[in-house]
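thread: overnight batch results

M.L. [08:02]
morning all. the overnight job finished for the chain we discussed friday. pasting input first so we're all looking at the same thing
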Amino acid sequence: MAIMVRDLPPEERPREKLLAYGPSGLSNAELLAILLRSGTRKKSVLRIAEEILARIKEQGLVGMVHISVAELAKIDGVGKVKAATLQAAIELARRLAVQQSAKIQMITGPEDVARYAMPHYRFEQKEHFAVLLLNTKNHVISMPEVSVGSLSASVVHPREVFRAAIDHAAAAMILLHNHPSGDPTPSREDIAVTERLVKAGKIMDIPVLDHVVLGRDRFISLKEKGLLQG
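M.L. [08:03]
and the structure it wrote out:
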């Protein structure tokens, strides 16, 4: 016979634990259970939450970003309404992270670049190439996206990169892109594209200050690695 949440002592029930100790004291399954709200006659809400986590175990919790409403709804005890609730919670968390990053107004190093851009690209499944455009005091003007797909010289053309800089009257720029694998180690192509754009920046008198590659929770600055040449 399945043990339901109502059969647990009050201090062990997810909602009561959250109210008593705060959300940081709960497991991932318990937090999901609160969002799901209820189980079925044969399955507790905690069991359903555990099944969702088991479905994404290879990716870890980040898998929640990529699992679709349709996939979630197929799990016994979830359905479309609960799946939509989970997706809404994930989107709110993403928007909060993006909003927090927008508070960074001045770039003093690659750490600021990562904090500004990571919420936008951490969970993307394709490579996105963007430019962080700065004014003369290194304040952020804009972060236009130039291309989506594998990074290559044919995809990231200086014409498109510097058109964005000219349109925004940028004094300098920082290149950035994400690695969907989560490993920010720059490839040969990353280095080649950087060299090409650094040279173009010198001609256009819009210097390329750095190229930051974003992983899942890590980043690498080509400038810090001594790879910003041109």
